[in-house]
Structures are given as structure tokens and as C-alpha cells.
Amino acid sequence: MSIDLQKIKQPFFIGVAGAGMSAIAQYLQGTGMQVSGSDRFFNEGKAGDIKTKLEAAGIRCFLQNGEGIHAGTDLVVASTAIEDTVVEIKKAKELNIPVIRRSELLALIAASKKTIAVGGTSGKSTTTGMLFDVLQYAGKQPSVISGAGLVSLIKKGEIGNAFVGHGDWLIIEADESDGSIVQYRPEIGLLLNIEKDHKELEALMSLFEIFKNNSRRFCVNQSNEHSRKLSVNSSNDFCVDGSCPGAGFQATGFSQEGFVISFNVNGQPFKIHILGRHNMENAVAATAAAALAGVSLEEAAAALENYEGIYRRSQILGEKNGIWVIDDFAHNPVKCAAAIRSCQPVSSKVVAWFQPHGYTPTKFLRREFVSEIANALRPQDEIWMSEIFYAGGTTTKDISAGDLINELKALGKNAYFVADRNNFLQEARGHLRPGTALLLMGARDPSLEQFSANIYGQL
Questions:
Q1: How many CA atoms within 13 Å lie on the side-chain side of 214?
Q2: Which residue, 36, 107, 333, 383, shows the most beta carbons closer than 10 Å to its own?
Q3: Chain-centroid distance, C-alpha 249
Q4: How many Cβ atoms from other residues are within 10 Å of residue 458's Cβ?
Q5: Domain 315-458: which topology?
Q6: Which of 356, 410, 350, 421 is nearest to 383 (CA)?
Q7: What confidence tier does 376 reach under pLDDT thresholds 50, 70, 90?
Q8: DSSP 8-state class, residue 431
Q9: 0.70 surpassed by pTM
Q10: CATH superfamily of 113-304
């Protein structure tokens, strides 16, 4: 199917409230199209303020019952979760309206701009946000389509995961979990890391190799044992552990004081109001990609000193009764371990709560979850888990978060299972004291933001 974006006037998005879909919908609305969409969360009344913000951007929102699709609709975009049996897909086909998936549309948009595609199994949203800030500070007037909201845009009342700039550059996240990363042919491909997540390493390496071959210029993290194998030109690459002397961008001198990290890139000092060594890695990645786009290290450092963060990525909710509360999107083993470690320099004790998502992903990564979390915990730290988030559909519920907790207990870790997360604070309250960092982790569940806010409010 050949789609000419220049001729599309009234696209309709099925699943428009999703992070990926809402971003593209806002982007197209910002380019002058008349966008509309539906979502099952509208039917269930669970969309939070996303519907209000979409409508404020000029996007018409409908229940997911087919009423929003009409003869004037000239393109229907469906998220990967939407099956062909959905009534709106059937209606689109009856009206001979072309139907494409989100990733196909994003590939078309990316082909129309000078695109920087950010790939890797961890850190994509944060690096995308940092890169947007750096290019914007440098006067490049970039556009962005992200998987998470930028706090700087959220403060303006927007969802924050999309922005239409007047320049040539577009920054996107390239997703490996659904294989769509192979559809992009970016001006600059940025590879952050490769770890087992969603797929086995062998399958991921194949996907990222295609990503490399499709990129006009390619930049990889040589500190990661898997991504360094795909290096094309080491002068474009970055390194954060001193083990790769050929990399063009070297980070040294990492330190964290409170909620601020400091380091140098090729001798240029950086200071960012954020937690964790992993975020130094994201910042150096953004700096390296920005350099390929013509931005100096000095400009990158100045931009990132004012970086305001990403929604639910090491997001500090505040401090109450001597307890700091941090909300984080961490959901795979490496991300959970990094989030725990990022809180340790600011606390005498970390109490981490995690809600795994999906029975199949949890079973697939069971060994890695136990190993990574166990290695991250100090003797005084604790890990709590509630039952696995179930989003619906057909699955075999043959694993429990309690199974992971039992394995962590067997390793001598302070591990606790509280099946119903609504009982978490009551059971954990006696474990919280001044100087504790309470870290709340999880993804995919749209109610997590409110859950974290409630925990903070009830401390």
C-alpha cells in the first residue's frame, strides 16, 4: 500500500490514547491535518486527562464504536494491539479507507525529515528528551515523537510526547519490541544498548543490525558488550566506562551529589538534575548524536543543565516525613536494577516496589529479574512486588510475582510480596523511616501515575 502523506487530510487513530499513538496524532495535527481518534479507555472512562489534552490540541475524540469514521476519513491508523475484528477496522474496510499500523505511519513521517532514530532496550525516552532539548537549545528547531512526555512540555498543559518544530530535524524512538525498528532509514541511528528484553539476544542483534544498515550515520554505545559489536565508525561512538579508547565521545569523572549528577565528556563538564549513572549514559548518547547533527559539546552541556526530565523516568514526586518518593517507568531487569542503584546515593535505605507487567514477559525474564535486582540491592535495601499487571487478552497465568520474591528471599534478600498493591503502604509503612528512598516501578498500566501519587499523598 502506497500512502502519500501530503494528500492525507483527515486521519483517524484507533487507540489514540496510547503513548505512541497520541504522539503521532499530535504531530500530524501540528502539521495542519484534522486528526480524530478513539480508544477503549474512553469507553471505560479510564483515559485520565489524556482525552482532555488531545481535545485541547484540536483532536476530536470518540468512543471506540465506529462513530468517528466517516466518508471523509482518508486514513485509519491502528496500534499493534488492535485486531482486524474491531468494529472500526471493519467499517474502514467497508468504506475502502486505507488502514496502516502506527509503525508504518511513523516510518513515513521519518522519511519526510532528517531523522535521528533512538534505539536500544533501555533509555530511549530519556535520551530522546535530552536530544530534543540539546537540538532546541542549539537553534535547530527540531520536532520530536516520543514514547513518554517531556516535563518541559507537560508543564504547558500538553501530553508532552510530541512537538512540531520548524526545522529539518525529527527525533523519534525506534522500537525493537514489535520489530518496527527495521522500517526506519534515519539520517542518524543511535544505539544505546542491547540486553535481553521482549526477545532473545540473537533476535535483537539481528534487528539492530538491520537498523545499523538502514542508518546513514550510526552511533553506538561501546560500553555495552553487545551494541559495540555493531560499531561502524568508532569516532561516532560513545563510552562511559573507559574501556573503549577508540570511541569519539568519552565520559569520565561521574559523581552524584543528592539529585544532581556530574561528569565530563572529552573534558567538557556536564551537570544535570537527574539521578543515576545510567542517565549519564543517556546524556552522553544524546551529546554524541547531537554532535553528528552539528551541535558543540559546550551547547549540549548548557542545554542539559536545564533539562527537566521525562514523565515517570526517575521522576521525583517529593519528600515527606524524611522519605523521598521516586516514580519510575522501569520494567525490565536492567532498568529496575539501574533505578534502584540511582536512589542509593541519596538514601540510607531503598525500599523499592515493583509491579511486573504481562505474564509472558515476566516468565521470559524471570531469571534476569532475580539476578539483576539481587545484585543491585544493598544489605539494608528491600524489594517489594505486587501481582503481575494483566491488560487483558489470552494468556496463561502460570507465574506470579510471588515466585520472583521467593527466589530473592532464597538469595538472602529483603524481599516481600503483597499481592494487592492497595495494601502495599499499610504493610510497608513500618519499613519506612527518615532517610529512606521509596522507589515505585512499573509500566504499561495507565493507573500507575495515580497509584504513585496516592502513595505519596498518604505517607
A1: 25
A2: 383
A3: 24
A4: 10
A5: Protein-Tyrosine Phosphatase; Chain A (3.90.190)
A6: 350
A7: very high
A8: G
A9: yes
A10: Mur-like, catalytic domain (3.40.1190.10)
